[in-house]
Amino acid sequence: MPTPDLEAARKYALQRLETELPAVLVYHSVAHTRDDVVPAVERLAEQEGVQGEDLLLLRTAAWYHDLGFVENEVDHEALGIRLAQEVLPRFGYSPAQIETVCDIILATRLPQSPTTHLEQIMADADLDLLGRDDFWTLNQALRDEEVALGRPRTDEEWYGGQLAFLQAHRYFTPAARALRHAGKEANTQAMARRLAGCLAVGGQDEAGAGSETGGALSIEERAAILRSASLFAETPEEVLLNVAALLEPLRVPAGETIFHKGEAGDSMYVIVEGRVRVHDGEFTLNHLGTCDVFGEMALLDTEARVASVVAVEGTHLLRLDQVPFQQFMASQTAVALGVIRVLNRRLRDRVRDMAHDFEYMQQMGRIAAAAAALETGRYDSRNLDEVGQRPDELGQLARVFQRMADEVIAREQRLKQEVRDLRIQIDEEKRRQQVAEITGSDYFQTIRDKARKLRDRK
Hints:
Layout: H1 6-20, H2 30-47, H3 52-64, H4 76-87, H5 95-106, H6 117-126, H7 135-148, H8 155-168, H9 174-206, H10 219-226, H11 237-244, E1 248-252, E2 257-259, E3 267-273, E4 276-280, E5 283-288, E6 293-294, E7 308-311, E8 315-321, H12 322-331, H13 333-376, H14 385-388, H15 393-439, H16 442-457
Antiparallel strand pairs: 1-8, 2-7, 3-6, 3-8, 4-5, 4-7
Helix pairs in contact: 1-3, 2-3, 2-6, 3-5, 3-6, 4-5, 5-6, 8-9, 9-10, 10-11, 13-15
């Protein structure tokens, strides 16, 4: 049986995702498939020992699992299956292989219920983000997409629904559990804190106190909101109540800048109501809403702000200034220890990220060196074997480069052989011509005639 052309199938799916997905799909975009799910599938498949035809079919399903969105976001799994059934035969997939791909795609439908090993890997890869550090950015993109599709939710509805989803979810493969379970638990706890903060604000509004003044919130309600800040994730509840007493209410009208990039940081802000835009000039970095926290590192130093923040709408904030907080922290070792633990964890994560970045740059340098070596005729494909084992885009680049370089070298060798063969043909033709010139000359004919006469005489 011929091997299916995965590369052609991939290009087909990628081209349609890049050109036909509606602009409102800011979460289920081409990046979700290309940059999130496919690398996650590659990573999990490697750790789970998937190889050969199974790996090929799993990769195919990863590229096609959200292709149905090009037609409709409703029941997109079934639409993606239909598209796979229609186009994969032209790329050499057999009916049995296509059936397996469709089963893997169907495993991403919520609630997930995968039955085979390949389906479990696909299900885990599709929700890999639940345990990642960029969970909140992608979660906000999902919420923005839901709003654009006409399904807005209040903060309480959104955070409550997301919390219930996180609590009910489980990873199926050992590799996914080892890689993402701890991160998912941390994100679940953070989601619970956000929901608690929103419920505190909502409960106050329902009580009729209104939100025109920050003083309407009790210390307990402020503490619930304050716990949304990761800096206070490990602060004991009784101590957090004392920190909450330091919060000052602040009203910011729509369009007003809360602080500018480059200003010395001197306070942290918690959003009680409203929405702000974090930006660097014209470039928007993030949008933050109820219960979100920004500027928290300014509680520890006066380094310049790295971005500007402006209120998108009338926004109610709680501000915690650096001076009173540091005075309080000096007398409360529990706060200091909690902050140190959080910062230590961030430092470890940053060191790990830097190590990964350094390794990434080194391996990118190997590809550049390989390109230079190919140009000078000193290329050795084995130098990229380690890079080619990566499950991400860099690994794919290395594998494609190896394949193209091998083809270039093979063509060059064929050309050299053809040149050698041509030279041999030219030399033989030249010899034939020289012989013909000699044998066709009058002198040669005279000698041949004399030789014949001598033979006849003998």
